[in-house]
Design a protein that fits this description.
The strands form three sheets. Strands 1-9-8-2-6-3 form a six-stranded mixed β-sheet, with helices on both faces. A two-stranded parallel sheet has the order 4-5. The protein has six helices and ten strands, in the order H-E-E-H-E-E-H-E-H-E-E-H-E-E-H-E. Helix 1 packs across helix 2. The chain has one domain: Glycerol-3-phosphate (1)-acyltransferase (3-Layer(aba) Sandwich), CATH 3.40.1130. The longest helix is centred in the N-terminal third of the chain and has 26 residues. It starts with a helix and ends in a 22-residue tail after the last strand. With 257 residues, it is α/β, with parallel strands linked by helices. Strand 4, helix 3 and strand 5 form a beta-alpha-beta unit.
């Protein structure tokens, strides 16, 4: 497909997704949003959001944020070959980086997960260096999930610890010494359901400090997202928990300039 053809397909895709999202929200949710002024109108931006609902989190942002964005998508949840191919086509059409979660209920083959991880890392870094916005959900799994993972099941007032892969993406993008990534924390509060009452709160951009380790930056962003999600929200941590094997998005990526 030509460059113009790909751009036209992506434009139609954005409109189609917006239509589906608006209909779904109108039918099953009421939405309020605060802090849109914190979302930069241009430039490298990483949107880091809490993940509550498998559909409505993305729809809420897709229909309200003041600029277009890409989404880092986990594609391992698609059931069956036909669904997987459709999701893969949609992601490629929209230019959305794709990953396989190593801790998904039906975990992918290791070689597949590593290949997708390397591809997603390179694509996301390139998007950020091109001044685009990318949405990530660092918990990895939503609380309301049509394909629930027993290990990640939780209440609406609980968050999973953030996987620090997103902070590594920021560090990698900034290795060119030209890119400065604005990381926008986004909190969600859900009540009822269905119909759901959804509150979205965008916080002021955060930046990776000089000599700050990605893990420390991820912890700062996680804390801010938790506060934006409401006073009753807590982060669920298991004794001795180590999820680092599931979040190393940059594994094997060598792009540094």
């Amino acid at each position: 497909m030509s460059v113009n053809g790909a751009a036209i397909s992506a434009a139609f895709g954005r409109l189609a997704i917006a239509g589906v999202c608006r209909r779904s929200l109108r039918r099953d949710a009421s939405l309020t949003i605060e802090g849109l002024e914190h979302v930069p109108s241009a430039g490298a931006t990483l949107l880091v959001a809490r993940h509550v609902h498998h559909l409505f989190d993305g729809c809420s942002l897709w229909t309200t944020l003041p600029r277009p964005f890409r989404i880092l998508v986990a594609v391992d949840w698609a059931a069956g070959r036909a669904s997987g191919r459709l999701l893969d086509w949609a992601c490629r059409t929209m230019g959305w980086p794709r990953v396989l979660r190593a801790d998904a209920p039906a975990g992918p083959a290791t070689t597949d997960a590593v290949w997708f991880r390397r591809q997603a890392t390179g694509e996301t870094v390139a998007l950020l260096r091109a001044g685009e916005a990318v949405l990530v959900f660092p918990e990895g799994f939503p609380a309301v999930d049509p394909n629930p993972n027993p290990a990640t099941r939780r209440g609406l007032d609980e968050m999973l610890p953030f996987r620090p892969g997103f902070a590594r993406l920021v560090a990698l993008a900034e290795k060119d010494r030209r890119t400065r990534v604005a990381t926008v924390p986004i909190g969600f509060t859900y009540a009822g359901g269905p119909p759901w009452s959804i509150a979205v709160r965008c916080g002021a951009p955060m930046f990776l400090e000089r000599d700050e380790r990605p893990g420390a930056f991820a912890a700062r962003v996680e804390a801010r997202v938790r506060l934006l999600s409401g006073p009753g929200v807590t982060v669920r941590r298991e004794p001795g928990e180590d999820r680092s094997s599931a979040i190393s998005l940059d594994a094997g990526y060598g792009g540094d300039g």
